[in-house]
Amino acid sequence: MMSTSASHPFDDAITLTLDDDGAWRAHAAKAYWNMVGPFGGISAATALHAVMIQPNRQGEPLAMTVNYAAPIAAGPIRIKPQLLRTNRTTQHWWLQMLQTDSNTGREASVLLAQLVTGVRRPVWSAPALQAPGAPAVDTLVSRKPRQGIEWFERYDIRFVDNPFKAADPDAPVLAYVRDDPPRALDFPSLAAICDTFFPSIFAKRREVVPIATVSMNIYFHLNAAELAAIGAAHLLGSTRSSVYHEGFFDAEAQVWSGPRLIATTQQVVWYKQ
Amino acid sequence: MMSTSASHPFDDAITLTLDDDGAWRAHAAKAYWNMVGPFGGISAATALHAVMIQPNRQGEPLAMTVNYAAPIAAGPIRIKPQLLRTNRTTQHWWLQMLQTDSNTGREASVLLAQLVTGVRRPVWSAPALQAPGAPAVDTLVSRKPRQGIEWFERYDIRFVDNPFKAADPDAPVLAYVRDDPPRALDFPSLAAICDTFFPSIFAKRREVVPIATVSMNIYFHLNAAELAAIGAAHLLGSTRSSVYHEGFFDAEAQVWSGPRLIATTQQVVWYKQ
After folding, report:
1. A104: Cβ–Cβ under 8 A, 6 or more apart, which residues?
2. I want to staple B176 with a disulfide (CB 3.0 to 4.6 A). Which of A55, A142, B158, B263 is the partner?
3. What is the dihedral of CA A205, A206, A207, A210, to 10 degrees?
4. Using a CB-CB distance cutoff of 8 angstroms, which residues of chain B are in contact with residue A246?
């Protein structure tokens, strides 16, 4: 069933209200819960949404780095976006997400984000990477990677091959992804999708091990009209890692809409053992 | 001639002194001048240095994002590092570089940086990417990419092939790089080297066009002892882009020391036409 935008759980999850002191208030959404806190993608989306709604914003998102400083608890989150520089073609933003620490009773940072918005211009443009070959999405089956994790229920994820059975565990993992129920793509939902890709360490180790994203970087490669034209179509993600070293590994992904590369994203991720 | 560390222009360029108000003061270094401001890599190195010298820093650099908010002018720069969260294995830092705007007379942000430091642990580790094949560094000639740009004189850069003549302008560009004169690698100098790689748009367009880095992201993949063991050896960089779109393109690079991947880095870059 196609939900209307107003009732979609994604819109509920990134809803912001203005506090008396000018900060924005969100609520960590149970609909996007991960193991011990909200799915990192929904926190990134909420941070981006807080910049998108600023009346003095110019241009569209170009670059975003989200540092996950601490687990986010159920309950209210306060967000303080700051515009620190406006140039002719770019704006530089920084924001903190804050929660009251139950031990100290003081408000502390749980997420930091730097964002750049920019004005695109109709100049020479060209692709450099070509989209990977993949079967049509309709020929693949939607599977929840694991049972009992709420945010998996909010996405239709279709792996091209089972990554746990990959002949080469270092090869890129291909999967289609879309909001479930379908929802027209926007910059916040694209940011969230950048955090849905398969952690390659599970393929490398052939098992699920405890992990936590420390930092996620996203570059957006399309303008608002191109984004709107995608609608609720599936995106194809291709993800791989470079190295697993002493408790931290990296990951990168390209996000394709048909032949068009619409985002590139990277993470550094903590792993337990 | 091998300089002593104390007299190396890199050390002079990242020197910080403490102001009365607790901010750190640097000077935009003529020895690393680019076209209209200092080389972005030296600004990134100075930002990282400002965190490295904090007495309450725990762990080593894991992730760093530098957003270049405005051209940096000759003269003093003030740097305000803030430690916003300390966890068991990570610390989350944010800093601003500020300069007094000659038009308004007010101090304004010229650079924003988020950094994560982390404690590595001797757990399971493994490579995923393999180093690209390249001729030995001694078989290649050091060339300055262009005359008259001061920071090029501070690096020994040896391209494996002339990128302006590449058969495939989208193929990765390989080059060795090292400080010139040689200097033992440390985290700030590695950060600077991440900004030395060939802008692929010059290969794609077969000409030099005006560009400016908007944001640079760096993940570090080695501990301090591994870094110290590299000394002043050349590093091998492999860089490519994904897409050039309406005034902005991305770039990524892997940085190798022999068979070891020591850093991965990405940029989003403004281009003029």
Report:
1. none
2. B158
3. 30
4. 120-123, 125, 223
